[in-house]
């Protein structure tokens, strides 16, 4: 498999040319030196990033209108952010344990991560409850509407992550020597997605905090 | 690694390269009828499922268009059709044709069937996700169809769904479930498409067989690949706008809704921006044109090359043009919004980019025509459709140059000129490719030909009939007939000739429509009773015809994957016995053949 060819180099090839054919015959078929799982995950993160970016663009457009009001910032949001941050840290730790074949630790850590994710989601729901109790509804002001939309969509992404976490936990539980490499790979993928969700939340939270 | 560093690699000119070993456990195996035909993970079956669903819902949209045409010319024949029904039919016809038929058919249908076969893979890389993708699409279609049966009926907001009118009570389906179901259906569609797109892109990037470089891929694969990338950028804009409008409609938010008085009552909304929706919609909507067109470009390139027995002229330029058109399609969206009151400089920018996109597009047209030059042209049914596409796409594209200019667009905006333009360029032109592709690949899918006589009849009526429908529509637009009007009434502003012309158009539309039923009959009967096709009946070079069994069975290529030694266009190579050399034929098997510069 040939690596590190830029897209321009690829597009400049002359496939009908005999000298090029000699090179092409050695090509093993793949383009990017990544597993299909990792590439698939990048693909999903890429689409999600565009999705959130578009929301952010509309947010920036809407906030310059005169009816925009600053949203209240419940302290619980900081706590939830800390929980998410902590779960990401635990995942780093889990990745290290997985790399060192310490699967007993991996099992415990994955369960802890699941618990933290649920804690985060419940925390977000409590924030919603607080806001509603204070009369801050989705239609009260566009800033509130965006807050509810952002938290809901981020929560949905996290729920999707929880499904994958469940599959990862299942895989770790039934792991044998044969599939150890696969288990490690799955843990890695799950961790990357978790860090991505933290990054998305930090951006969204920061946006709402400073605007 | 540069090309030079391969100079020392010891590969003799005539030494076949061994196939890569593929682990048998990587393949999905169906165990029952349900997993074989319903919840199947084989991309070929999924492709057919997509095609059947897309064509079925497309037939509904076609019948809706008949109703609209009858209302416009012979209203006495459709007394049951009121203004609300008319708008609902217009809306559903447009949305179904663009999204649920063309997008799903090109990417879900042809993409699934052809990608693994053409790149030499056994299946898509994530077969399970692929299967889910189809069922999510199916759910989206069901939700869309459900909107016909809810109180108030489906939305009648026009396929662009512009707020505020889309969710106000004066618009059919605007204050009921109609618009909500449409928005939900579109959101579901995007989710399903993303799952499918994941497969198309990663299969093309990572699962190609040995020797299949990106630049050895047939242009069909390049077209589908680039269109999928476009969709991944563009569809998020659609889902974002759908989510926000659903909230505006159901929860009273004001993302897009300004303060308005509706039937004398002040609405609860205030401060939203309808123009923001237009930007989001067209940021999706314009690339959508190319999401449909690029696969058509790719497929038509292959059809022309195969049926003219000549390598595609300027393969590299064709690939570049596909990529450049894809990139440019993201910076032209506001040409759909010239009459929204935008800054003239903004309009100037978008007019310029719009005209620039004509350059790579024209390049493709020239290359198709030059491919035909001195080719051994066989006027088979697929070739006829391919040739008709070139003419139709050029005609439709030229009127796009008119509308791309602000000064010309303003008076023509919202007239039948626009309707004629987009039907020619992204309705008829891609549909001609769909037909050509079906006639071309039907022997691959079923092992039988479609009936040639019926095919030729289908072609001539569809091709000529389309011109009888849409050429007069340009004239209607020029004389100022507005689009989306339920009826014209007698008015000094509408020329008397429009009445008879409208009737003429309707008769042509009905004739073309009924001919499609003949085409369906041809498909159904030929699948069982058609003339048996030999292996690779058109003499194509690409891998989909080189499977172990025809039609291809599960796993596509038997025990060993094919090894690719050449590009997909080695037609009429001097010194070769046959006038085509399949991609998997090693140089040693065609000793006298000399590769020549394209």
Topology:
The complex is a heterodimer of chains A (211) and B (598).
Chain A lengths: L6 H5 L6 H7 L11 H27 L13 H24 L3 H31 L8 H32 L6 H30 L2
Helix pairs in contact in A: 3-6, 3-7, 4-5, 4-7, 5-6, 6-7
Chain B lengths: L32 H6 L4 H31 L9 H37 L7 H20 L30 H30 L12 H32 L10 E2 L2 E2 L7 H34 L7 H14 L15 H13 L1 H15 L8 H24 L1 H7 L3 H31 L5 H27 L18 H33 L69
Antiparallel strand pairs in B: 1-2
Helix pairs in contact in B: 2-3, 2-4, 2-15, 3-5, 3-6, 3-7, 3-13, 4-5, 5-6, 6-7, 6-8, 7-10, 7-11, 7-13, 8-10, 10-11, 11-13, 11-14, 13-14, 14-15
Average residue pLDDT of chain B: 92
Spans of at least 5 consecutive residues with low confidence of chain A: none
* Head-to-tail CA distance between termini of chain A: 48 Å
The main pleated sheet of chain B reads as:
2 strands, antiparallel
Q: What's the SSE pattern of chain A?
A: HHHHHHH
Structural class by SSE content of chain B: mainly alpha
Kindly provide the radius of gyration of chain A, computed on alpha-carbon positions and rounded to a whole number of angstroms.
22 Å
Features of the shown structure:
heterodimer; A: 211 residues; mainly alpha; 74% helix; B: 598 residues; two-stranded antiparallel sheet; disordered N terminus
3D architecture notes:
The complex is a heterodimer of chains A (211) and B (598). Chain A has 211 residues and is mainly alpha-helical. Chain A has helices at 7-11, 18-24, 36-62, 76-99, 103-133, 142-173, 180-209. In chain A, α3 (36-62) packs antiparallel against α6 (142-173), α3 (36-62) packs parallel to α7 and α4 (76-99) packs antiparallel against α5. The radius of gyration of chain A is 22 Å and the shape is flat. Chain A starts with 6 loop residues before the first helix and ends with a helix. Chain B has 598 residues and is an all-alpha fold. Chain B is 59% helix and 1% strand. Chain B contains 15 helices and two strands. A two-stranded antiparallel sheet of chain B has the order 1-2. The two termini of chain B are 26 Å apart. Residues 1-13 of chain B have low confidence and may be disordered. At the A-B interface, α2, α3 and α6 of A face α5, α6, α7 and α8 of B.
């Amino acid at each position: 498999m040939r690596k590190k060819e830029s897209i321009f180099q690829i597009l400049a090839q002359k496939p009908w040319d005999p000298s090029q054919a000699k090179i092409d015959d050695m090509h093993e078929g793949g383009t990017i030196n990544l597993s299909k799982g990792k590439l698939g995950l990048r693909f999903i993160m890429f689409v999600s990033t565009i999705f959130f970016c578009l929301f952010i663009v509309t947010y920036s457009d809407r906030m310059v209108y005169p009816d925009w009001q600053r949203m209240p910032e419940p302290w619980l949001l900081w706590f939830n952010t800390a929980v998410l941050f902590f779960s990401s840290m635990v995942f780093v730790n889990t990745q290290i344990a997985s790399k060192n074949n310490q699967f007993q630790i991996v099992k415990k850590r994955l369960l802890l991560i699941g618990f933290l994710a649920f804690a985060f989601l419940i925390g977000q729901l409590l924030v919603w409850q607080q806001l509603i109790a204070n009369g801050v509804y989705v239609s009260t002001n566009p800033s509130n509407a965006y807050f509810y939309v952002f938290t809901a969509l981020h929560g949905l992404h996290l729920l999707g992550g929880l499904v994958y976490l469940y599959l990862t936990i299942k895989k770790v539980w039934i792991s044998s020597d044969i599939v150890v490499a696969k288990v490690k790979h799955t843990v890695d993928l799950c961790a990357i997605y978790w860090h991505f969700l933290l990054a998305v939340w930090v951006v969204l939270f920061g946006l709402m905090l400073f605007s | 690694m540069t090309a030079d560093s391969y100079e020392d690699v010891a590969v003799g000119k005539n030494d076949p390269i061994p196939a890569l070993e593929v682990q048998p456990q990587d393949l999905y195996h169906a165990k029952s009828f349900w997993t074989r035909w319903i919840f199947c993970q084989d991309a070929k079956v999924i492709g057919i499922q997509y095609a059947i669903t897309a064509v079925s819902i497309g037939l509904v949209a076609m019948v809706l268009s008949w109703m609209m045409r009858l209302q416009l010319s012979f209203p006495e024949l459709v007394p049951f059709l009121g203004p609300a029904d008319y708008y609902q039919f217009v809306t559903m016809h447009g949305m179904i044709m663009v999204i649920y038929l063309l997008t799903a058919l090109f990417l879900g249908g042809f993409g699934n069937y052809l990608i693994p076969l053409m790149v030499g893979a056994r299946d898509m890389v994530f077969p399970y996700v692929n299967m889910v993708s189809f069922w999510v699409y199916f759910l989206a279609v069901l939700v869309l169809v459900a909107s016909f049966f809810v109180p108030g009926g489906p939305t009648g907001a026009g396929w662009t769904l512009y707020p505020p009118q889309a969710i106000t009570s004066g618009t059919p389906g605007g204050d009921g479930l109609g618009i909500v179901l449409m928005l939900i259906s579109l959101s579901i569609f995007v989710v399903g498409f993303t799952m499918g797109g994941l497969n198309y892109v990663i299969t093309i990037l990572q699962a190609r067989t040995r020797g299949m470089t990106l630049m050895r891929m047939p242009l069909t694969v390049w077209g589908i690949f680039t269109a999928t990338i476009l969709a991944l950028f563009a569809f998020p804009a659609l889902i974002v706008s759908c989510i926000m409008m659903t909230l505006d409609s159901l929860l009273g938010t004001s993302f897009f809704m300004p303060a308005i008085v509706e039937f004398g009552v002040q609405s609860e909304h205030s401060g939203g921006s309808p123009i923001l929706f237009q930007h989001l919609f067209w940021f999706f909507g314009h690339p959508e044109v190319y999401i449909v067109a690029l696969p058509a470009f790719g497929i038509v390139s292959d059809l022309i090359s195969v049926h003219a027995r000549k390598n595609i002229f300027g393969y590299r330029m064709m690939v570049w043009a596909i990529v450049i058109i894809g990139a440019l399609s993201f910076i032209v969206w506001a040409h759909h919004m010239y009459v929204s009151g935008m800054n003239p400089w903004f309009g100037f920018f978008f007019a310029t980019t719009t005209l620039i996109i004509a350059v790579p597009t024209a390049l493709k047209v020239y290359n198709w025509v030059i491919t035909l030059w001195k080719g051994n042209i066989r006027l088979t049914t697929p070739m006829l459709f391919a040739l008709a596409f070139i003419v139709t796409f050029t005609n439709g594209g030229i009127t796009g140059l008119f509308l791309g200019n602000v000064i010309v667009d303003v008076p023509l905006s919202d007239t039948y000129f626009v309707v004629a333009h987009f039907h020619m360029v992204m309705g008829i032109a891609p549909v001609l490719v769909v037909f050509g592709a079906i006639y071309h690949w039907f022997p691959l899918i079923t092992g039988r030909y479609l009936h040639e006589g019926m095919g030729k009849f289908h072609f001539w009526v569809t091709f000529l009939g389309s011109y009888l429908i849409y050429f007069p529509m340009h004239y209607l637009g020029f004389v100022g007939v507005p689009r989306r009007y339920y009826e014209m009434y007698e008015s000094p502003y509408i020329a008397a000739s429009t009445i008879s012309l409208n009737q003429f158009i309707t008769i042509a539309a009905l004739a073309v429509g009924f001919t499609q039923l003949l085409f369906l009959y041809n498909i159904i009967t030929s699948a069982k009773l058609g003339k048996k096709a030999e292996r690779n009946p058109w003499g194509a070079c690409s891998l989909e015809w080189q499977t172990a069994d025809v039609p291809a069975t599960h796993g596509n290529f038997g025990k060993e994957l094919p090894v690719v030694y050449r590009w997909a266009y080695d037609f009429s190579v001097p010194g070769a016995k046959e006038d085509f050399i399949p991609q998997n034929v090693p140089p040693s098997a065609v000793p006298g053949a000399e590769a020549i510069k394209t």
